[in-house]
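User: Okay, second chain of the day. Same drill as before: sequence in, structure tokens out.
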Amino acid sequence: MSIRTILHYPDKRLRITGKPVKEFGPELHQLLDDMAETMYAAPGVGLAAPQLGVAQRIFIIDIATGEDEASELRVFINPEIVETQGSVVWEEGCLSFPSVHEDVDRAEWVKVRAFDKDGQEFELEADGLLAIAIQHENDHLDGKLMIDHLSLLKRRLVHRAMAKRAASDRAAE
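Assistant: Same drill. Structure tokens below.
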């Protein structure tokens, strides 16, 4: 396992649409292990393969937020949100937008169909943080980012802050 570099906005690779996974084998398992190690080290509750520059339809989620909660890593391969209900505003963060937290309107409840790491299909119904995380990470697979859910004014402010951060990071290298 190894920690990989998480792409930060405005990196254009974050806008690439993920391609469906066709092979469920050792290479996929290595990628999933690396994604988990990267997500936990960041730390975050979710990570999509495109955030690592891997254009595949894969994301992982673990919503355990405290040491007293049991960790439950969930793997979603070739996911499809098949049903949504309700609406809720949730303050979201994103590993590709360090230090940015914004209110985003999402469905309150989702049903998702996906494959696990071994290629077994499953369906999952979720609400609360898990539903939000599923929608957020699924957006990454389509090249859609948290910033796309913001008003034009907030989008411009976040864009400027992230562009300034990117320039500062490049100057420090």
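The chain has one domain: 12-172.

User: Thanks, on to the next one.
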